Amino acid sequence: MLEQFSPDIQFIIVIAIIAVLFLLVFFNNKRNKQKRYDRKNRNFRRNFYEKKQNKKED
């Protein structure tokens, strides 16, 4: 696929692709952290008892 380009251009393209993939993973991870759980408001005891009560209701 990249054989038509010179070795220098191939190297630059590969580095650019890796950088883009890294940024995508970085921003996706950041978004997932915000979406899933806010670490400042985490309360183990409250969450534990809420889950326990939800289990009893089911």
**Proportion of residues in β-strands:** under 5%
Structural class: mainly alpha
Uncertain stretches of 5 or more adjacent residues? none
- By DSSP (H or I, 4+ residues per run), the number of helices equals 2
Write down the oligomeric state.
single chain
Compute the number of strand runs. 0
Backbone CA Rg: 23 Å
Number of domains: 1
Q: Secondary-structure element sequence? A: HH
Main beta sheet, described? none
Write the SSE topology.
Layout: H1 7-36, H2 44-57
What does this structure look like?
The protein is mainly α. It has one domain. It has helices spanning 7-36, 44-57. The mean pLDDT is 85. Keywords: Membrane, Transmembrane, Transmembrane helix. Residues 38-58 are annotated as: Disordered. This is Small hydrophobic protein.
Key terms:
58 residues; mainly alpha
Task: Explain briefly what this protein structure is.
This protein has 58 residues and is mainly alpha-helical. Helices cover 76% and strands 0% of the residues.
